[in-house]
Amino acid sequence: MVAISFPSLRQRSVIAILACFSVGLEISQAQLMEWKFNEGSGEMAESSGTAGPSPLTMRNDKVPTSLFTPDGGGATGKPGDYALDLSGANGMGANNPPNSGPVATAPGNTEGLSALGGLESLTIIGWLKPQTTITGAARIIIGKTFYVQAGSSGELQFAVIPDSGTPIFVNSEPKYTEVGMWMFFAITYDGTRTMDNVNFYVGATDAGLTLVCTRSIDAGKLPPFSGGLEVGNVSSGARPFQGMIDDLTIYGAENGADGALPQTKIEEIYNKVAKP
């Protein structure tokens, strides 16, 4: 007869606690919203995630316009993968006379946007395919409580916008230099800390993921979210990102640091596209 060994009561308790911790971790690292831009036609890019619907309306010269790449134009290059095509802009970022270009926006009454307020930590992830070196405060994603845009040549800039309305921003090192090729970016913010709490990451489809630098923003929790969301430009059209954007995703947590994803998790997300 073969003896069958069952876990003791203490062992079962430990297993249960670990299982609950794992589930809690997944919940606290909530994917609030993601835009994959895979509709391929029409003037709307739908979102998924726990925040609720946050569709983007694509516009060129303030007119609703389909801005999807051709089939296979997304970061994976596979059939059925599309991206947001902002290559119709006449330049990258601010200029004199002003550049102009298309934009994707969600108005302030969009159901899911309120989830972007009150966050104590967050992560913003996406893929970029610039037509020229990113610069000139070219907008990537802009909200009432935070933004990601280009800094000086090859830099990304991240800001938290407190109740005062004055952004507290930091620039990365100039490592976002790909032109005409897909480039992964991730930025994490941990508002439970005041120092060394902003991480910038970069990756190319053939080069792996790298921690670019760590910066500091002493701002704590994001304030309540109001207003709309802009992707790839400002609504006036004067700060265009000239190129393509794909798989734009926001993670966040209202309490604690879990919304700032660790590098291992970011690498998993990066590998889904870079090494499928």
Q: What's the CATH class, please?
A: Mainly Beta
**What is the count of helical runs?**
2
Compressed to H and E, one letter per element, the order equals HEEEEEEEEEEEEEEEEH
**Beta content:** 25-35%
* Assembly state of the chains shown: single chain
Instruction: Count the E strands.
Output: 16
Radius of gyration (CA) equals 20 Å
The profile of the biggest β sheet is: 9 strands, antiparallel
Low-confidence stretches: 1-6, 9-28
Helix content: 10-25%
In total, the number of domains comes to: 1
Structural class: mainly beta
Mean pLDDT: 90
CATH topology: Jelly Rolls
Shape: globular
> Can you tell me the CATH architecture?
Sandwich
C-alpha end-to-end distance: 47 Å
Describe the structure.
With 276 residues, the chain is mainly beta. It is 12% helix and 31% strand. The chain has one domain: Jelly Rolls, CATH 2.60.120. It contains two helices and 16 strands. Strands 2, 3, 4, 6, 8, 9, 10, 11 and 15 form a nine-stranded antiparallel beta sheet that branches. Strands 1, 5, 7, 12, 13, 14 and 16 form a seven-stranded antiparallel beta sheet that branches. The longest helix is centred in the first third of the chain and has 20 residues, at 9-28. The N and C termini lie far apart (47 Å). Mean pLDDT is 90; it is low at 1-6 and 9-28.
What secondary-structure arrangement, pairings included, does this model have?
Layout: H1 9-28, E1 30-35, E2 44-45, E3 56-60, E4 63-64, E5 84-85, E6 103-106, E7 121-130, E8 139-142, E9 146-150, E10 156-160, E11 168-171, E12 183-190, E13 198-204, E14 208-215, E15 229-231, E16 243-253, H2 263-274
Antiparallel strand pairs: 1-16, 2-3, 3-4, 3-6, 5-16, 6-15, 7-12, 7-16, 8-9, 8-15, 9-10, 10-11, 12-13, 13-14
